[in-house]
Task: structure prediction
Amino acid sequence: MKEARPALRYAKAVLKLAKEQNIDAEVNDDMKLIVATIADSDDLDAMLKSPVIKASDKKNVLDAIFADKVNNISKGLFNILGENKRMIMLESVAKQYTIVYDYHQNMQTARVTTAVPLTSALEAKVQEKIVAITGNSATIANIVDPEIIGGFILRVGDVQYDASISNQFNELRREFDNSHYIPKI
Result:
């Protein structure tokens, strides 16, 4: 992760510029689009990471893909990364931007792992739990993992609340392993 610190610096600079022009939310949408596009296209990801392809060619491809989809600040990011031969960092910069933007907006993302997809009623209950734990509401990212059997695992920032059935089974297993229970035969 040697590119994390420079990516954060680029993201903060882009956010500052976007705030000055009062379009920071629009740029945040652009950054989410860039991350999603790179994640969806293995070819685009490989092209951006290729040391053989010239930075100017990478910039031209990005300009063609995002021609009328992103604003000038996002296009300026393509230019500056191309000039500094750091186009490989585009996805990291875009991810860092959304993190920094959310932080400045006092928004947080909660990852909720469930055995089945969340319904709107369950999402409301989870939102209540998030407010009870952190004091703030959050956007919810649902991850479906059938291995937790039931319940949910909530992670907000560095706080984790595990109310899954698999966790309860593990706690029971630890209790039985630690106790000196000898059954009658």
User: Anything to note?
Assistant: The CA atoms of residues 37 and 160 lie 30 Å apart.
